[in-house]
Write the structure tokens for this entry.
Amino acid sequence: MNAISHPMQRANKGMQARNVSKQYPGAHGQRVAALENIDLVFPEGSITCVVGTSGCGKSTLLRILAGLDDDHGGSITLGTQTLSGPSLQRGVVFQDHRLLPWMTIADNVALALHRETAQRRREIVDQKLELVDLLAFRDTYPSQLSGGMAQRVAIARALAHEPRVLLLDEPFSALDSITRLQLQDALLSIRDKERITTVLITHDIEEAVYLGDRIAVLSNRPGTVRIVIDVELPYPRARTGASFAAVRQSLYEQFLQHAA
Ligand code: ADP
Ligand code: MG
């Protein structure tokens, strides 16, 4: 028997969005649909990239997956458990790092660890800072870090309470292009070490092809799942390779076909 199961076979332990819909209040008491009938499987240990144009509902979906918005149709499950409200099972990273400027890097990472002993807290913080290659900066302050470093601390903080799922909403889109490439590799290295189920929202097609085991393409608003692509390319992926270009091309076609 093959000891390494395909991500799809482990789907039951991962996260699932079932028939998720979301409406926001609009003008004149009307409701405006932001998401409709989203059915998505996020297999355990895999990276799923969710791509779509601006305003198609990506952040709305991420907030629902994170339990930050319970006012929606459908359900979110993690393994056999139906989720409701935020929990430490999910770590979230946003486009801005949201670090507290008056706290050291170590204290920022330790924020959600108040139940741990001081010694255990220190061990966890140092392990997570090591993971993002910033242990040497543990006693510095956010203002002393570059944008890319601050985002790595935000990832360390999201991982500090050992969540089962890491959710990232366009985490690299405010960074310069070289730093963005470095952070993409950092995320792959984290996934290899922690084997964590990861959902990455991005509007960057190349980023999705570089990182995703699977890529879910959302339609324009209201967001629906247009297609889910399993990317069979082995990691690390060569951005300049022909097979990489072929996947990227098929994704571009998805967007060009449906451009108004
Ligand atoms: P994306 O992240 O893909 O750019 P969002 O999820 O932020 O899209 O938004 C999807 C749609 O829902 C957009 O049209 C946006 O204007 C609308 N929207 C988002 N948040 C709210 C809100 N709090 N109230 C009303 N409309 C909202
Ligand atoms: Mg967004």
